[in-house]
Amino acid sequence: MIRPDAPVLLEIRDLTARVEDQPILKGVSLTIRAGEIHAVMGRNGSGKSTLSKVLAGHPAYTVTGGSVRYMGDDLLTLEPELRARAGLFLGFQYPVEIPGVSNLEFLRVATNARRAGKGEEELDTFAFEDLVRERLQVVQMDPAFLERSVNEGFSGGEKKRNEILQMALLEPLVAVLDETDSGLDIDALRIVAGGVNHLAGPDNATLLITHYQRLLDVITPDYVHVMAAGRILRTGGKELALELEERGYDWVDAELAALERTPAEVG
Amino acid sequence: MVAASLSTPTATAGTAPGSWVSALLADAAGGADARAAQALAQTPLPTRRDEAWRFTDLAPLTALKPTLLRPAPGTHPEPAAGSLRLTLDGHSDPLAGISLPAGLEPITGAGLGESLGQVLAATGSAELWPVLLNGATARNVLALRVRGTVATTLELVSDAGDGEGILPLRLLLVLEPDSSLEILQVHRSAGANLTSVVLEARLGEGAELRHGLLAPGAEAGCLLATVAVEQATGSRYSGVSAHGGWALGRLEPRLVQREGAAHSALKALQLADGRQISDTHSQMVFEGPDGRLEQLHKAVADGQGRSVFNGAVQVPRAAQRTDAAQLSRNLLLSDRARIDTKPELEIVADDVRCAHGATVSRLQQDELFYLQSRGIAADQAARLLLRGFCEEVLQELPAAASAWQPLASLLGEEGR
Questions:
Q1: Which of B234, B190, B191 is closest to B209 using CA atoms?
Q2: A interface residues, B as partner, C-beta within 8 Å
Q3: Looking at the 3D structure of chain A, how many domains does it have?
Q4: ipTM score here?
């Protein structure tokens, strides 16, 4: 839902970042307002996953320039946990397995951290169990997964459901979902997308990072951005995704090559 | 004063019999086992020149007062429902005023004389220095025979408290064929003392022993624990141990499957922080075919702590179709901590499956970041991961262990 007067939640300006000595992001700009759903598409290696990790504060990535303002504040100076408590959520492409840590305890600690960030009271174990059982329905997840270790032995689909369950509990203002559709069969994709649609509202925003159009068949984006070689090459509406689906990414390469011949225009 | 003069390792290295030992023997005169006393007197103190003690310095032990300790009763949590607690102080009869559950009876007189030491001999443990030390000082033995299925979990508890000296404990279990028992050993300390414990367990055909050992230590305290298990065919032994917090804590599980075709499982967690030493030397011997071993050893070293694991597995020619797996997983939390881990497999039989592996790592950055990305602060995330690492073993302890708060007590977080 596009409302030009809606408050800006996330504003990325000329963001550059590297991992080790390798520059990955080479000047990304993006403005996300409340109520909007954005999709960033691109080939593997275009920098779209790096963008999500930089936003969440992954220590392996170093920001070398530009700025990110979140709710008006400088996001990049915040530790990852403070970003999360302030309502930024990263749905992982590969959710991490943590043996020995119960999923239920993890979800409770995370939920209470977020609630503290919102100035709300912590939930005791009983109140939290009620909440989590209600939110399980968003992703049609079996309560048995609460008793297991975090993501340990979960299938790909179960891990992604667990990510969306966390999103449902943490109620983020900006959710960045990195390749949430990867590794899902069509039923799991519908359930996960249904959860995302259910959670999207006028006061929050979603940034989908995806390689394929098929996720956008079930979650309709307001904006589609095409990323290549660490930049956003083009921005359009949902029809841009369809164009990519039809024409493939080859024209992106051509456009990129043209850009690189005229570096003065970049930026 | 004697102890003080011996508190440096160089002063004791190679001294035979060692004036520390002489002083202790003088104090323990009239103890249970004159032969062990004589052997101890003639055996030099282990030093780091002995392969089995290469990484483990006895200095914290010889710094202790060489006298017998009679600890005052400690305050302990209520026993869990379904468990019977026996308190061991090395002097009083732990069975006084206790009515044993069905299936358990004391072994006394000639029966005791016949059985005691058999399993130590069968597992090649009789001449180990910690066993000699125990034999030379322990004044009584808690010896029990098991028939049928014992429904009650037996808790064997000692608390050396804050007194100085040596607390020797000797235990013997004889499981008749097809019997079954669960026991939990708990050994605590709050001072400069040694808890020396030797458990012998003989499992008849088809018998099952589920054995937990929880030993949260004290800064100046030492623990030397030997667990000798002899298994007949079809028997099952499952040992789950957790020790840490001792200046010197050493556990020696020594198992033998006399005719093979038995099942042995060892799960262990050990922690070393500060300048502590946590050591496990395990030995599994298969003397016949078709035996199984599942072994997981986990260690955490922080501060300047030192963790040692040596896992011996012997598969002689007679032990065809042995299936043994040993995994050592180690968490190194500080640059100044040290972990030595060594599998020691001697395989002569040719038709066997023997797997072993060892990993040493720090907390995984990806796991930390995942937790942080959910609003959990870095230090709390590290704590959760450490707990997770430990829980994999601790949750396997007998249910009665939960009253002792295993994780909190090992991490020194409980209010004592």
A1: B234
A2: 56-60, 79-81, 83-85, 89-90, 92, 95-96, 98-101, 105-106, 109-110, 113-114, 117, 149, 166, 170
A3: 1
A4: 0.94
